[in-house]
Design goal:
The chain has helices at residues 6-9, 21-29, 53-74, 102-112, 147-154, 183-187, 191-202, and strands at 14-16, 35-36, 81-91, 94-96, 116-127, 130-142, 176-180. It is an alpha/beta fold and 206 residues long. Strands 1, 2, 3, 4, 5, 6 and 7 form a seven-stranded mixed sheet that branches. The longest helix is centred in the N-terminal third of the chain and has 22 residues, at 53-74. The chain is globular and about 55 Å long.
């Protein structure tokens, strides 16, 4: 999708406002060089202040982008493009972030067992003064898990830095019976929409 503008994008200083090697790998796999710069934004927004999960993840992603863009600009190395994302697992109207303990990870996975939940990933792309925001959501259906399987997974430590307590691209993918929507939304960076945004942003420069 990006081939017509790839020569333009390859000249840009593209920064991912994240410490996620998974998101970095996804971008590099489509042929773009990207630098990682974890945001210092505290991610302390209150979901109750937002009308929808979409608004919440987009605002969190936006604050990550603005913090990184401002910090790098003040350091004299302003980026051309900053990409930020925030992923949230939701079930029965509640948000599941990254578990803060093994017990919380267990409780999350136990509640997801045998059920369908929805993953939202909000993305913000800032190129110079232009900002584009979007959200994708995907339904994930877990098979039925017993307590021993859940505890065995937690022992791998994989759940502890993943929203909802699992990573679909890792061992946690063995719990997923099927999905309805974009797989990459669950990984944490919906590639189709991201590439569509980048193409539309830079097609006039090609």
């Amino acid at each position: 999708m990006l081939q017509p503008v790839m020569h333009v994008l390859k000249q840009k200083n593209i920064i991912l406002a994240s410490g996620s090697p998974r998101r970095k790998e996804l971008i590099e796999n489509i042929g773009l060089a990207v630098g990682l710069c974890p945001s210092l934004f505290e991610e302390n927004l209150d979901p109750k202040n937002y009308k929808s999960f979409t608004e919440f993840v987009e605002e969190t992603a936006l604050q990550k982008v603005l913090e990184v863009d401002n910090r790098l600009s003040l350091q004299g190395d302003p980026p051309d493009v900053v990409i930020g994302a925030d992923t949230m697992v939701t079930l029965d109207g509640s948000m599941f972030g990254k578990p803060t303990s093994e017990q919380e990870a267990f409780d999350m996975l136990k509640s997801l067992s045998g059920r369908s939940h929805t993953v939202y990933t909000g993305v913000v792309v800032k190129a110079n003064d232009k900002i584009v925001k979007f959200t994708e959501k995907t339904d994930v259906i877990f098979g039925k898990l017993d307590d021993e399987q859940i505890r065995g997974y937690i022992a791998t430590k994989e759940p502890m830095d993943k929203a909802g307590g699992y990573g679909i691209q890792g061992v946690g993918g063995t719990f997923v019976e099927r999905i309805e929507g974009d797989y990459f939304t669950v990984v944490g960076l919906p590639l189709y929409r991201l590439c569509s945004v980048l193409y539309n942003m830079f097609k006039e420069n090609k």
